[in-house]
Amino acid sequence: MYFSDKRYKNSLPVILLATVILSPITATKAQDIAALKESYRRPSEIPFPPTNPYTPEKAALGKALFFEPRLSGNQNMNCATCHNPSFGWEVPVKTAIGAQNTALERQAPTILNTAWVHPFFWDGRAASAEEQAKGPIEAAVEMNLPLPEAVARLGKINEYKQWFNRVFPAQGLTVDTMVQAIATFERTVVASYAPFDAWIDGDEGAISDSAKRGFTLFTGKANCSVCHSGWNFTDNKFHNIGTTTRDIGRGKFEAGNIKAQNAFKTPTLRDSTQRAPYMHDGSMATLEEVMMHYVDGGGSSPSLAVEMKPLKLSGDEQRDVIDFIKSLTGSKQVVTLPILPN
């Protein structure tokens, strides 16, 4: 899927694989800035898996399903309940609220840049966006609707039946085609063109001198880019950064790996200023709190990530890093709500 708008200007076509692992970036010398900037350049196309290729009709159907409250048991919730486009595709509360007004244990991760994410959920329990889409619909504390019942409910709506038969002529409406449509829409949700991107594209005035210094710190002394690498600012790996001792996170699926205990997937930093509060549990309200947590080194634990060490950053340096992170937020996207079938 190609784009011609400003967000993707001056970018050469690139081949992107969801399985690419980005190497940590640690160079800090001035002569390396150009190479560092290039490694954070926005891609020119969205990668879609061959098992679920993009079509405009499939994405439109997926968008309707993303905002469809009939995919919840009480028909009062949809995917956007926890992934609200007005708040960076998250919600501005400590943790999301599920069925029966139940406060969930974790913050709702953003769906921004889904096409470049793997695996899914904070603990990585879903290998694909299609698999991830099934979880919240069926979860009793979330949308609370068994998937077969969801299919049966949609199947009673003639327009949906016609839509699925058109998009999936060989299969029609099934659990798999339903989540394929949702995943296709989610892969079209891409973070907006930010001042940082304009700087990468050659506009030296796009970000402040403080943000430029912050980029040098981010990729060097502050050690941020060891985990927050690549254009989406994540290594898609799991790290215990010392935010909890209660939730074992990835440890549930890697019981024999000490470093997986209390570890959670590195989130993207794109559009961060729209997505407070922060961390897997929404425990930090501001970027300043996040910065202080890293400066302190995250405490002491056998499972603490080896990358976590106290940082000797002055107050000015901390502000520079925060200013850089703020430069990763573009204009708020306007999302037109779909007209749902009757």
From TrEMBL:
It comes from Lacibacterium aquatile. PROSITE patterns: CYTC. The keyword Aminoacyl-tRNA synthetase does not apply. Residues 57-158, 209-329 form the Cytochrome c domain. It is found in: Periplasm. This is Cytochrome-c peroxidase. InterPro entries: Cyt_c-like_dom, Cyt_c-like_dom_sf, Cytochrome_c_Peroxidase/MauG, Di-haem_cyt_c_peroxidsae, MauG/Cytc_peroxidase. Its main location: periplasm. Residues 1-29 form the signal peptide. Pfam families: CCP_MauG, Cytochrom_C. Keywords: Heme, Iron, Metal-binding, Oxidoreductase, Periplasm, Peroxidase, Signal. One of its GO terms (molecular function) is peroxidase activity. Transmembrane segments: none annotated.
